């Protein structure tokens, strides 16, 4: 269908004069029927008129109307919220007919606001698509001298009237109020807090997950992975291939999407119609390795939940299955031979019929392929949080829409030029017009729903950080279709305009935005609690954080810890009156890392804080159903130690014995030659003691390390105590030896000097006596 006809069918009658004048722009571009045969050259005046009309007239009209209408909807929603607050139930007071009628009127007002909001979103989307369509026509026909698409895209970014996030706050507010009204009108409704419009629920019977999707800039990808790895281990995949049984950490996935030449499934999914469906063929790795292939049909229901139907099929049957010639008879016969329950066989037959009916009724054919590398994170036997990161995402055309230039062989269900040669990312051999490489990685977080509806704190910190960019409702199928078949689709997804933005955010600004959002959510939860008679304690106790936990660096934490340590040391010398006021700082500081020169920096596992002491005094509580193993996995199996490990231990023992013999020889020599020298005798005894310690220490360490090797201990083999004691003892002995020898020499020197003085005096006395005679 031509876009002009699509635009006419999408017009909302009350706003018919506020839509883009697409016909006028085509007339100025000389693309309408009235301009056929007009061979006049395109001049600068013609370009000026067109740019003036599209930028200063049409864009201003659309943006101004959208902004003013959105403000009126917000005012209506706020006014309805004030009315709703006035009807808050009082304790002990039952509902009467008058109160019920007021709630019904409010429900009608909310219905009207929601309908107008939906129409405004459709209005923004169809006009945004119209701008891109007409600009593409301009650049294709007049682009030799004038290209205005970059300028128009920049203008559209400055006026983000098609942004999905711009409507999220209003939709969430309406959802909260509508939930409150339904609680008052229907006593049998389950009092569960409604989910945000930015998330998608997925039901996998009997469990239900809430999915959040984000984009990750390449500059932040490694930091996001390391942040997640601290909490969840990476999943090691094992490709279902007969030739590649070895596990792979990051497998390559291929999703081959089917749609009609008119993109029927695309339109249903884009417009979020009831029971919108999508169909794909999915496999891991290269097709030449014979992986398992699955037909996957996804159905999105009216309540937002999704249902998936999977069908395992062999490659040789796919063509005949798409044509409806093969109805999985062999698989059905195999199930019957295995004696599977009749209900399961009938369910399998129904899945086959549903998928083939979908293909036949809509004329589906392979349209595009999504190729990407997936990294998954999940704890074993704990599926409360499941995270996947898809990198190196590329979309490739697989269609035969143009019969003169088909991208694949019409007789085959896939492109043989890709799969036969085992092409991989970045697919350099494919024509540029047949491939689109997505600039970001796609992060998906799935959290299992429980009674509390509460997410782990680290998940909340990641989702609100500067490392990720929220992309609610992002779909690889929609993105691939709009990037490869821009001329064939008549409506673009809401995130299309954000692809040209720089999704990197300032850490502080992102954190402040997240704190504001959490505070608003806490306020809404309190309002809901007051209506349904429950207290939302978790949200009511929300307290703004001091700084972003994800945005901190190691050096920043080190500086903060040192500053706290210095502040505490200064406060210790002050009066005791400040102890109570600083109790909070001391508690926070005790759990942080110590600064340089502290005991914790030398022995990281040792801490004297009250928190550490209490943790050491308590035994770790194991989860229910988990028992402490009697033997670890590392200790199972035969002992296999390399000879060099034993030889290294023996070499160290011999070195210690060598030191023992040297010191012992020195000690015996000193003691034997001492004679009547008490100092030499004492030093000989000291060296004998040091030699005995060195020999004993060497033997004890040899035995200890041998036992550690046999026990497969993961402890460090280093031990600095023995070498430090021997070194310190030798140093002290040498210093004492020098001190006592020096003292003895000085005493002898003074004695010799006194004897010399006495001798001189005696000689002088003799001389004087002789003179007197």
UniProtKB/TrEMBL annotation:
Q: Where is this region: Disordered?
A: 560-596, 614-635
Membrane topology (UniProt)? Multi-pass membrane protein
Subcellular location(s) of the protein: Vacuole membrane
GO cellular component labels: fungal-type vacuole membrane; vacuolar transporter chaperone complex
Q: Does the keyword Transmembrane apply?
A: yes
InterPro entries with a match to the protein in the record:
DUF202, SPX_dom, VTC_Complex_Subunit, VTC_domain, VTC_sf
Q: Which domain of life is it from?
A: Eukaryota
Q: Domain SPX: where?
A: 1-152
Here the segments flagged for biased composition (Basic and acidic residues) are: 560-570
A single GO BP: polyphosphate biosynthetic process
- Asked if the keyword Phosphoprotein belongs to this entry, the reply reads no
Q: Which UniProt keywords apply?
A: Membrane, Transmembrane, Transmembrane helix, Vacuole
Q: Which Pfam families match?
A: DUF202 (PF02656), VTC (PF09359)
Kindly list the residue ranges recorded as spanning the membrane.
Answer: 656-675, 682-700, 720-740
Where it mainly occurs, coarsely classed, is membrane
Its protein name is SPX domain-containing protein
Q: What is the lineage of its organism?
A: Eukaryota, Fungi, Dikarya, Ascomycota, Pezizomycotina
């Amino acid at each position: 269908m031509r876009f002009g006809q699509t635009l006419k069918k999408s017009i909302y009658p009350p706003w018919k004069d506020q839509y883009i004048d697409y016909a006028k722009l085509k007339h100025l571009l000389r693309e309408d029927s009235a301009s056929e045969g007009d061979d006049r050259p395109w001049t600068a005046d013609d370009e000026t008129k067109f740019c003036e009309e599209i930028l200063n007239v049409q864009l201003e009209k659309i943006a101004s109307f959208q902004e003013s209408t959105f403000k009126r909807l917000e005012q209506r929603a706020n006014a309805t919220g004030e009315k709703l607050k006035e009807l808050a139930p009082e304790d002990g007071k039952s509902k009467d007919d008058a109160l019920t009628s007021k709630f019904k009127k409010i429900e009608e007002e909310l219905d009207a606001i929601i309908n107008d909001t939906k129409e405004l979103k459709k209005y923004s989307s169809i006009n945004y698509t119209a701008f891109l369509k007409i600009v593409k026509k301009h650049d294709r026909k007049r682009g030799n001298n004038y290209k205005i698409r970059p300028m128009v895209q920049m203008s559209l970014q400055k006026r983000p009237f098609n942004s999905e996030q711009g409507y999220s706050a209003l939709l969430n507010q309406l959802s909260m109020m509508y939930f409150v009204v339904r609680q008052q009108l229907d006593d049998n409704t389950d009092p569960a807090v409604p989910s945000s419009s930015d998330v998608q629920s997925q039901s996998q019977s009997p469990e239900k997950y809430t999915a959040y999707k984000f984009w990750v800039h390449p500059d932040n990808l490694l930091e996001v992975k390391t942040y997640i790895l601290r909490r969840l281990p990476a999943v090691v995949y094992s490709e279902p291939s007969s030739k590649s049984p070895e596990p792979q950490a990051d497998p390559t996935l291929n999703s081959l999407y089917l749609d009609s030449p008119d993109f029927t499934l695309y339109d249903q999914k884009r417009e979020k119609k009831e029971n919108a469906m999508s169909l794909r063929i999915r496999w891991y790795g290269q097709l030449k390795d014979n992986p398992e292939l699955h037909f996957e049909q996804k159905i999105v229901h009216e309540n937002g939940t999704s249902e998936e139907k999977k069908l395992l099929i062999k490659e040789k049957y796919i063509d005949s299955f798409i044509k409806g010639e093969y109805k999985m008879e062999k698989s059905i016969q195999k199930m019957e031979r295995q004696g599977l329950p009749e209900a399961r066989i009938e369910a399998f037959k129904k899945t086959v019929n549903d998928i083939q009916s979908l293909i036949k009724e809509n004329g589906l054919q392979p349209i595009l392929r999504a190729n990407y590398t997936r990294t998954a994170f999940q704890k074993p036997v704990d599926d409360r949080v499941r995270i996947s990161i898809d990198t190196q995402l590329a979309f490739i055309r697989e269609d035969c829409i143009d019969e003169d230039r088909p991208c694949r062989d019409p007789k085959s269900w896939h492109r043989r030029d890709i799969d036969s040669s085992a092409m991989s990312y970045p697919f350099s051999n494919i024509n540029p017009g047949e491939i689109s490489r997505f600039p970001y990685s796609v992060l998906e977080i799935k959290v299992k729903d429980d009674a509390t509806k509460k997410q782990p704190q680290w998940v909340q910190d990641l989702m609100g950080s500067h490392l990720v960019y929220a992309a609610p409702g992002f779909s690889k199928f929609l993105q691939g279709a709009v990037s490869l078949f821009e001329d064939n689709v008549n409506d673009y997804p809401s995130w299309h305009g954000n692809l040209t933005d720089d999704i990197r955010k300032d850490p502080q600004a992102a954190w402040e935005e997240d704190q504001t959002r959490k505070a608003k959510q806490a306020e809404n939860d309190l309002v809901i609690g007051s209506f349904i008679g429950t207290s939302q304690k978790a949200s009511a106790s929300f307290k703004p954080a001091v700084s972003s936990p994800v945005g901190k660096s190691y050096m920043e934490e080190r500086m903060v810890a040192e500053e706290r340590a210095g502040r505490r040391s200064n406060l210790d010398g002050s009066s005791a009156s400040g102890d109570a006021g600083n109790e909070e700082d001391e508690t926070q500081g005790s759990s942080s890392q110590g600064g340089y020169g502290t005991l914790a920096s030398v022995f990281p596992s040792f801490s004297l804080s009250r928190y550490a002491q209490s943790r050491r005094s308590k035994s770790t509580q194991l989860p229910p159903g988990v028992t402490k193993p009697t033997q670890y996995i590392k200790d199972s199996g035969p002992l296999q130690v390399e000879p060099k490990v034993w030889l290294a231990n023996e070499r160290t023992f011999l070195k210690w014995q060598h030191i023992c013999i040297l010191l012992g020889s020195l000690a015996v020599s000193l003691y034997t030659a001492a004679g009547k020298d008490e100092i030499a005798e004492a030093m000989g005894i000291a060296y004998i003691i040091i030699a005995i310690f060195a020999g004993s220490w060497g033997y004890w360490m040899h035995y200890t390390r041998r036992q550690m090797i046999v026990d497969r201990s993961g402890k460090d083999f280093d031990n600095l105590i023995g070498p430090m004691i021997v070194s310190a003892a030798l140093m002290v002995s040498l210093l004492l030896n020098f001190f006592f020898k020096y003292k003895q020499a000085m005493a002898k020197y003074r004695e010799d000097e006194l004897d010399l003085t006495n001798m001189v005096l005696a000689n002088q006395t003799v001389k004087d006596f002789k003179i007197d005679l």
